[in-house]
Write a structure and sequence with these properties.
Blueprint: E1 18-21, E2 24-32, H1 33-38, E3 41-45, E4 51-55, E5 67-70, E6 76-77, E7 80-84, E8 87-94, H2 103-112
Parallel strand pairs: 2-8
Antiparallel strand pairs: 1-2, 3-4, 5-8, 6-7
Length: 169
């Protein structure tokens, strides 16, 4: 057989816990609110089977979406397997479920946490109550079709309704 080049294609399979960007790896971890505020110990099973233990410093607060980095725990570099990329961890903070905290716990939290900023409320202020919402409904108005100022609402009149213009004064 004649000599020639051997060409092969490697397809990278997606991993369930890690995303690869060059030699760097990204993973996401959930931490409880207690861990986010008081310190966390995170055990991570790495791709090569090792278990890595990561600890936050006392007083170090993890906010939702924070990203931390560990040097030399990413993927090995091409032609130099002893040099590795970085491991990035993006944190998701899990808050307690609605009603999970007792009034005593809430009072203890208020005492332990920094004081909430005071709000200036005037006598003329109107009080309203909030409820859970979905941003998918943003801009759809009361009936889910948009609001009265949308341009295409004029076309949706249906039933041959009359159009009336405002009289000029």
């Amino acid at each position: 057989m004649a000599a020639g080049d051997l060409v092969f294609v490697i397809q990278q399979k997606e991993h369930t816990r890690f995303i690869r960007k060059g030699n760097d790896l990204l993973t996401q971890r959930k931490v409880s609110l207690t861990e986010a505020l008081c310190g966390a110990t995170i055990c991570l099973d790495h791709l090569d089977g090792r278990q890595i233990v990561l600890r936050t410093k006392p007083g170090e607060v993890i906010r939702p979406g924070d990203v931390k980095c560990v040097q030399d725990e990413g993927m090995p570099m091409h032609k130099n397997p002893f040099v590795k990329g970085k491991l990035f961890i993006q944190f998701q903070v899990e808050f307690p479920k609605q009603g999970a905290l007792s009034t005593g716990s809430l009072a203890a939290l208020e005492k332990a946490l920094p004081e909430a900023p005071k709000q200036m409320v005037t006598d003329e202020a109107e009080e309203h109550h909030m409820h859970a919402a979905d941003l998918e409904h943003l801009g759809r108005g009361q009936n889910g079709r948009g609001n009265a100022h949308d341009e295409d609402d004029d076309e949706d009149m249906g039933g041959g309704g009359q159009r009336v213009q405002c009289a000029q004064q």
